[in-house]
Amino acid sequence: MNRKPIIIGLTGSILLSGIYFLFLVLIGGIEHAVGFVSFLWYWLAIIITGFGLQIGLYTYIRQKIKSRAATAEVSTSVGVSTGSMVACCLHLAVDLLPLVGLSA
Question: What domain range includes position 81?
Answer without folding.
Answer: 4-103
